[in-house]
């Protein structure tokens, strides 16, 4: 039976089955995860020729490699012979991969290099087989994106206005580049992936879910999302959304966005001022973005998340600390703050994970059938750039997400 | 004897400097099979200068160790 998404996704409410229905999840894989641009990793994870890391795009096991000539490839981790996994380690350095089952050997570009006892195939070079390649690979600010669709919008078109937020992250580095080299934590949540995505720019929950953390640490984050906050939630189009906290940060001193002051990171500030002159003030005040890039890249100022669906009710959230190239003084602090908030015993993600999982259990209840996403719809407005914005704790981002989701799920399948 | 292990999920090789001969050699030991090869300075220089294609030929499993031609079979 064909799902009528226009019935399940309405302007101010969405149906609970969207989080629990196996058929819908299967359709999402085809129409979103194996079609649109999905963030897989960052070029800094394979910095040197021969480097490789294993990644996931939904259930697809992908090897990200860097060849001798510097090209980054995304290969499917499946031997062309019998379909065995070729790579087992999560990361390593090898110009070639040899399947442990029968020894078929590939270059790290996916090209077949050779196979044992080749007379059984009529000699050397007789098989025009190689590792599967993700059809389209592109990068933006070093983030590596994959699209399993041979055709479709370019990465630049897909990112749209969200690209500017990634630019804003990169410009915090004195060298204009971020690196994701601190290692990844994998947080498994028994929840549908969309509950995580919606939560990322939900400014309504922090004061409740994270209230205890804010009270203990004296963090100012809670007030950024209060009713008095001048921050806005912005629908960036294309399913992307952000909590734009800059209106609040602009009332503060440089580096306050990071919960610190210039005096604590003098080398970094000096470097940035030398590099950017007067514009450094703006960069150091406005700080990093809080943006959810559809469907799976979330930048939460100091942390980067890549969300990967495992099953209709299971998701892995890969988390790492932002590292700014050329800013060792900042990087130590970024790492410790990231560990404190989303590390193994991190306070923020522990709170959120509890909510994701409770939410998943809750939506299985038969009534009421709907989830409400109307908050702030009556006070939504359009900003000077034509984007819909709401108050800091409005559900403008969710409505943008669902609008784009619906267009992908209803459109012609590719 | 100083020894380094160069290992990946695909191979594990112990590398050391061998001074037993009249001149120094690099000693390579495939730790999975025990197979040993020594490389002298000129051989190492040749590897350093060998085109990638030549190295790739060596990595072809049928090039030696897993060859089914009797005259090639010198490996484990």
TrEMBL record, chain A:
Keywords noted in UniProt: 2Fe-2S, Dioxygenase, Iron, Iron-sulfur, Metal-binding, NAD, Oxidoreductase
Pfam families hit by this protein: Rieske, Ring_hydroxyl_A
InterPro entries the record matches: ARHD_Rieske_2Fe_2S, Rieske_2Fe-2S, Rieske_2Fe-2S_sf, Ring_hydroxy_dOase_asu_C_dom, Rng_hydr_dOase-A
Molecular function as annotated in GO: 2 iron, 2 sulfur cluster binding; dioxygenase activity; iron ion binding; monooxygenase activity; oxidoreductase activity, acting on paired donors, with incorporation or reduction of molecular oxygen
Xref: CDD domains: RHO_alpha_C_AntDO-like
PROSITE patterns (alphabetical): RIESKE (PS51296), RING_HYDROXYL_ALPHA (PS00570)
Residue span(s) of domain Rieske: 37-146
Family that this chain belongs to: Belongs to the bacterial ring-hydroxylating dioxygenase alpha subunit family.
Name of the protein in its database record: Fatty-acyl-CoA synthase
Source species: Nonomuraea wenchangensis
UniProtKB/TrEMBL annotation, chain B:
Superkingdom of origin organism: Bacteria
Listed name of the protein: Uncharacterized protein
Lineage: Bacteria, Bacillati, Actinomycetota, Actinomycetes, Streptosporangiales
């Amino acid at each position: 039976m064909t799902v009528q998404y226009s019935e399940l996704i309405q302007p101010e409410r969405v149906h609970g089955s969207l989080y629990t229905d196996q058929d819908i999840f299967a359709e999402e894989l085809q129409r979103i995860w194996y079609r649109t641009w999905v963030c897989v990793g960052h070029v800094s994870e394979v910095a040197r020729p021969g480097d490789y890391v294993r990644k996931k795009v939904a259930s697809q096991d992908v090897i990200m490699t860097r060849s001798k000539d510097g090209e980054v490839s995304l290969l499917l981790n499946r031997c062309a012979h019998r379909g065995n996994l070729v790579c087992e380690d999560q990361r390593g350095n090898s110009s070639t991969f040899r399947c442990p089952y029968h020894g078929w050997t590939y270059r790290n570009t996916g090209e077949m290099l050779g196979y044992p006892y080749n007379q059984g195939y009529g000699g050397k070079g007789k098989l025009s087989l190689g590792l599967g390649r993700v059809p389209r690979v592109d990068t933006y600010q070093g983030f590596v994106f994959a699209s399993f669709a041979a055709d479709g919008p370019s990465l630049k078109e897909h990112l749209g206005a969200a690209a500017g937020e990634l630019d804003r992250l990169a410009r915090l580095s004195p060298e204009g580049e971020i690196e994701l080299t601190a290692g990844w934590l994998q947080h498994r949540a028994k929840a549908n992936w969309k509950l995580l995505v919606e939560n990322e720019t939900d400014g309504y929950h922090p004061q409740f879910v994270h209230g205890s953390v804010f009270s203990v640490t004296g963090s100012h984050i809670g007030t950024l999302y209060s009713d008095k906050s001048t921050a806005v939630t912005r629908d960036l189009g294309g399913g992307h959304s952000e909590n734009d906290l800059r209106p609040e940060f602009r009332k503060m001193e440089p580096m306050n966005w990071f919960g610190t002051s210039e005096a604590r990171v003098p080398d970094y500030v000096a470097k940035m001022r030398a590099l950017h002159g007067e514009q450094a003030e703006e960069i150091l005040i406005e700080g990093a973005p809080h943006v959810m890039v559809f469907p799976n890249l979330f930048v939460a100022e100091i942390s980067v998340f890549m969300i990967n669906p495992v099953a209709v009710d299971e998701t892995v959230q890969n988390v790492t600390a932002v590292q700014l190239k050329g800013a060792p003084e900042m990087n130590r602090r970024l790492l410790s703050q990231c560990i404190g908030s989303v590390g193994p015993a991190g306070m923020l993600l522990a709170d959120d994970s509890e909510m994701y999982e409770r939410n998943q259990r809750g939506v299985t209840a038969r009534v009421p059938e709907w989830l409400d996403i109307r908050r702030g719809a009556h006070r939504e407005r359009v900003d000077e750039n034509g984007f819909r914005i709401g108050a800091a704790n409005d559900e403008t981002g969710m409505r943008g997400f669902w609008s784009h989701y619906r267009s992908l799920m209803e459109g012609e399948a590719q | 004897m100083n020894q380094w292990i160069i290992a990946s999920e695909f191979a594990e090789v112990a590398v050391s400097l061998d001074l037993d001969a009249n001149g120094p050699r690099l000693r390579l030991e495939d730790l999975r099979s025990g197979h040993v090869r020594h490389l002298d300075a000129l051989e190492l220089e040749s590897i350093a200068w060998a085109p990638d294609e030549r190295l790739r030929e060596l990595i072809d499993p049928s090039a030696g160790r897993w060859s089914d031609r009797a005259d090639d079979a010198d490996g484990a």
